[in-house]
Amino acid sequence: MNPQQRVAHVVALVVIGACVLAVPVLAQDHPETVGSRDRPGWATDVAGDRVQAHVSGSWDLEGDDALPAAAGLTFNPQFVIWTDALANVMGTTAHNTLHDEFMVGWTTLQDEWSHDIWARRLRPDGTLLEHFNVAAVAGEYLNRPVITYCPMHDEYLVAFTNFYDGSGLADVQARRVAWDGGSMSDVFTVTPGVAQHVDPSVAYCTPCDEFVVTYTNQWPGGELDLYAQRVRAADGTLLDMNFVASGGGWNRTYSSTAFHPAMYGGAGGYLIAYLAASSPPSGTRVWYKITHTELYDLYVNPELEASSTTTAAFGVWPQVAAGETGFLVAWWEASGGGYQVKARRISAEGSALGPPEGFPVSGVCLPPTTTHNLAVTYAYPQLYLVLWEYPTPSGTAEIHGIFVSEVADMTLGDESVVSEAGSAIPRPTVVCSPMSDCLIAYNWWSVSSLDIAGEIVRLRAVFSDGFESGDTSAWSATLP
């Protein structure tokens, strides 16, 4: 039988440290070629529906001899992306499809107000490439870089918030950066000169070759609303701008946006998800809007419910990712005396699917904080990967994760500890390549500093008749 024509049970694997995620996936007529990548000595054996893992034949990861915290190991990241004596705060990641490499961005705190934006390239095998400064102004507080790749020009748009000298002003600024960091445009301001403008989210529209940047306006009276700005990818020219939503006694903030080419009959469009809190307070909602790429209908389009509840966690970004047939929106929500991650599927036509309150993605854990990140990416045909920062009773943070189906309101497999916490590992981010190489980057409290670290993992399709796609050997990360 031709392997490309198989219709069989598929198992998707993510091998991450001592954790193996194994989940059933709907059969693929044309499965992606995928394999497993991890630190030296790790491999996987698969027979039918059973999954076993070993380390060079000497450790049994199933049963009493499993490696997690019970074995007394202190967590070490697969590789350190950046370390120095300063505090470095994780931003976001992006994948470059032309060169098949990743870009990681973060903020380095030079002193109380001099905060710089930095980035580093790395390959899917973990090889660390050049690092470089993206933006730095003495005495100005630059924060939370968001990196989005533009294949048309083989460069990135790096957007961030500039709080200037802390006097109360704030703007969203951006810079176009060549794929290798070898050249950059001037820094330009995306937002108008009224109110505070913070927390950008960026999506790239391939057919129209432009970005949309959404951000929060904070007015002097305290009201929060959302705007969206089109940016021409070729030269950074600001095009049309429009309200996302405003007024009505609601504070709207923490937006996340994604582009889908199938929206509006194939013309393409954006979905913008965000938090909405009433004033006076009566709970926090997760809402979304859809719009054409020109944004002309954004303000007049109705606000739609990603969730019918009023118990979303305020201060923590909802996240949206685009798949093949639509979107997945995920958020934190109060539940059972703690908080859990919930999600809702949205069709490419903009219709919310499944239960109106969404469906649970995680178990219930301790209340999240404002640094309690959530990350969503499209990892494999019909599969999203959702990661979240999991606070432990001891005060450290782990990274937990699970697969979510694109075609049903369900998770696949068990909630798993993606990175064990011997020290705090907050602010997870994740991005996957079309070959299902996935970079998970996060903050890592080393002995003396807050560093940027990560793991490279890969999904592998395994069929019930024993056929495995991709390279089935263990693969080492290359350190500088």
What does this structure look like?
The protein is mainly β. Helix content is 1%, strand content 51%. The protein contains one helix and 34 strands. The strands form nine sheets. Strands 6-33-32-31 form a four-stranded antiparallel β-sheet, with no helix packed on it. Strands 7-8-9-10 form a four-stranded antiparallel β-sheet, with no helix packed on it. A hairpin with a 4-residue loop joins strand 15 and strand 16. The chain starts with 9 loop residues before the first strand and ends in a 17-residue tail after the last strand. The relative contact order is 0.17. The N terminus and C terminus are likely disordered.
Helix and strand arrangement:
Elements: E1 10-16, E2 19-25, E3 42-47, E4 50-55, E5 59-60, E6 79-82, E7 87-96, E8 101-109, E9 115-122, E10 128-135, E11 142-150, E12 155-162, E13 171-178, E14 188-189, E15 196-205, E16 210-218, E17 224-232, E18 238-245, E19 250-260, H1 263-266, E20 269-278, E21 284-292, E22 304-305, E23 319-322, E24 326-335, E25 338-347, E26 359-360, E27 374-380, E28 383-391, E29 397-405, E30 411-419, E31 429-432, E32 437-445, E33 450-458, E34 461-463
Antiparallel strand pairs: 1-2, 1-34, 3-4, 4-5, 6-33, 7-8, 8-9, 9-10, 11-12, 12-13, 13-14, 15-16, 16-17, 17-18, 19-20, 20-21, 21-22, 23-24, 24-25, 25-26, 27-28, 28-29, 29-30, 31-32, 32-33
